[in-house]
Design brief:
Length: about 230
């Protein structure tokens, strides 16, 4: 369904970076409404009808934000999905929607992640409510960073702000352990982020095992050698 709305690319200048939203909703009317609203705000949207479908799509899509119905027809529920994906990627913004007035009233066993936003379905027809919720969870990034202007044609043009920020640390020679400390997250989360970054740069199947070196070359070709400000 998202492909049918590709003509809205004029919202963001050609070649500009688009943030990505993973939308998980099993009601087709609500999903279409939300997808159109979020797309019109300049996001690339990946639509899923179940938590399992979203989990399978997560690594390949590498979203900035998850928008999920707390109660899904097929298990696991939205709260469980949000917890699982947030554990894999602590930088992921989470917006939970529900027909119930609060997460507690939805009567699901799993809590929603700390820092997640909650939006009642009765308010999703108001663009400002949904988009404000999305922006609020994105602005709470543990390491907020403005995405630098990427030179035209650079492989980094498809990378997120987080990925570019981590690649800068890699270029500075930081180990994954130090990156985890600097970002206030787990080593496993950093390893997964770096793995997805290499895959996005086409380095995931590097036969010589030089993905880190080649990723550094891509960064320095785009931005030059960074300065360590710590």
């Amino acid at each position: 369904m998202h492909e049918e709305r590709a003509d809205q690319d004029d919202v963001v200048p050609a070649g500009a970076y688009r943030r990505r939203a993973l939308l998980v909703e099993d009601d087709s009317f609500t999903r279409t409404l939300l997808a159109e609203l979020i797309t019109s705000a300049g996001f690339d949207v990946k639509e899923c009808t179940s938590a399992r479908e979203a989990a399978d799509a997560f690594d390949g899509f590498d979203p900035d934000v998850l928008v999920v119905d707390i109660q899904l027809e097929q298990p696991p529920n939205g709260a469980q999905l949000a917890q699982a994906l947030h554990a894999r990627a602590p930088y992921l913004g989470v917006v939970v929607i529900s027909q119930y007035p609060s997460p507690a009233a939805a009567n699901v066993s799993s809590p929603i992640p700390v820092g997640a936003a909650f939006v009642h379905k009765g308010r999703i027809d108001s663009p400002s409510v949904v988009l404000s919720a999305i922006e609020s969870v994105l602005s709470d990034d543990a390491t907020p960073v403005q995405r630098p202007a990427v030179p035209e044609g650079s492989p980094l043009a498809t990378c997120s702000s987080d990925q570019i920020a981590v690649l800068r640390m890699v270029t500075l020679g930081y180990s994954n352990e130090r990156i985890a400390r600097e970002r206030g997250t787990s080593l496993r989360a950093v390893e997964q982020l770096v793995h997805r970054l290499y895959a996005r740069l086409g380095l995931g199947a590097d036969p010589d095992g030089n993905a880190r070196v080649n990723a550094v070359r891509i960064y320095t070709a785009a931005f030059g050698l960074p300065r360590d400000d710590t």
